[in-house]
Specification:
mainly alpha
Length: about 260
């Protein structure tokens, strides 16, 4: 009978290797590509009977509704990006539930994804607003109109302060996106490992120790439903925040004000 302590130690050693997040991220992408290909083959039927095709159809409609609701009518353009992000984060989270290394439990992976999202959002802001409009939105709405000179000078200081705050908030999005996902997924993994090695069979009853050796009681199985819930919620939060960040920059100011 294999030693559960040795298995846990081996798994932690593999997770600590520098190559593990890279390999498992590539594996996640390959799984998505293969599943997507199978789903496309089933989509050729008039009434799809392939379960993977139906699953992808429901996921696509869910992401489409999210993009159109949060970003607006022009959110259709960003469905491929948002759908891909959701699938990668969700499947990466699920990897940790089946004993593999979850790429999202590595800060390097979550930070890289956050940087990609934030950079893309800035690029889309420049493309839709133009360079001047993109920079202008950091200063906030015009202040000081109709005020005397002293009032306009004070409002100018407020505008400059708003500019600094907005720039810092855009930079901080990299940390907020990455740390939230990394903290929740790595924390969920650590809790599972702790519960998994909390009680050994030999501690419960000596004859059980003779049968199972040094293996631990799989108490972490009790947390599996909660782990699934956390994995889905964290993928959803990362995706919704991506849509929110896009809506703040690509939606025209007048439309944004009307939406609020």
């Amino acid at each position: 009978m294999p030693d559960s302590g040795a298995l846990i130690a081996a798994a932690e050693h593999a997770e600590g290797a520098w190559w593990a997040p890279i390999v498992y991220t590539v594996l996640v992408c390959l799984v998505i590509i293969v599943a997507g290909r199978i789903g496309l083959l089933g989509a050729k039927e008039h009434v799809p009977r392939n379960m993977i095709t139906r699953l992808f159809e429901h996921l696509y409609l869910f992401i489409e509704n999210m993009c159109l609701s949060v970003i607006g009518p022009h959110g259709q353009r960003y469905i491929p990006l948002v759908f891909t992000i959701y699938m990668i984060v969700l499947l990466s989270n699920f990897f940790g539930l089946i004993g593999l290394t979850a790429p999202t439990s590595s800060f390097g992976v979550t930070f890289g994804m956050a940087v990609m999202v934030v950079v893309y959002v800035q690029w889309e802001g420049i493309r839709t607003r133009g360079p001047v409009g993109y920079v202008r939105h950091f200063f906030g709405p015009p202040l000081g109109e109709g005020l005397p000179l002293l009032g306009r000078a004070f409002m100018l200081l407020i505008t400059l302060l708003l500019f600094v705050i907005e720039v810092i908030s855009e930079i901080a999005k990299n940390l907020s996106l990455s740390l939230r996902l990394y903290g929740n997924m790595s924390g969920e993994h650590e809790v599972g490992v702790t519960f998994g090695g909390l009680v050994k069979f030999a501690d419960l009853w000596a004859p059980l120790g003779a049968v199972f050796g040094d293996m631990s009681v799989p108490l972490h199985a009790l947390l599996f439903p909660l782990a699934v819930f956390v994995s889905v919620v964290q993928a959803l939060i990362f995706t919704i925040l991506t849509c929110v960040y896009l809506s703040l920059l690509v939606r025209p100011p007048g439309e944004a004000a009307h939406a609020h």
